[in-house]
Amino acid sequence: MSFDYSLDFQNIDFRQHPELYRIGKGEQGVLLVEPYKSEILPHWRFKTPDIAKESSEQIYSLFLEYLAQDDFVGADMARKFIQMGYTRSRRYANHKSGRKYKKTSSETGDKKEILPYEVDHIKAESAAIFKAKWIQAKTNEKYLQLLAKHKQLYEK
């Protein structure tokens, strides 16, 4: 089931209403689902490998705390933040501005043109740090059990 963007994210506490949470694809909803966004976002950083290591470890620690509480939504949100640490640092590793596309106009309308790669080895190292934690999270046995249970209960 796809992520439901029509919900009233300003007023829903997903810890109290896990039945409303939809996993979606990749990082969908990572900056919407409360109270988890507010709990995890302050730890999310990737500017240097040292910062990325500390950040990924803090978020993974939250991931494990959520699992210990059988809180699938919290664990999935922590997994999404770790994944986003990988994808964003990878984007900055490839494109210094953080922008992958540039809009161009032509006779046939607006188009997106992929900007050339500008390799940043520091951001690439940060990406590798987050990627390792992301794989660790998404293959965690308890996470996989709670994922299956959530899908069975709520995503029919």
Automatic annotation (TrEMBL):
It comes from the Bacteria. InterPro entries: DUF4385 (IPR025494). This is DUF4385 domain-containing protein. It holds the Pfam family DUF4385.
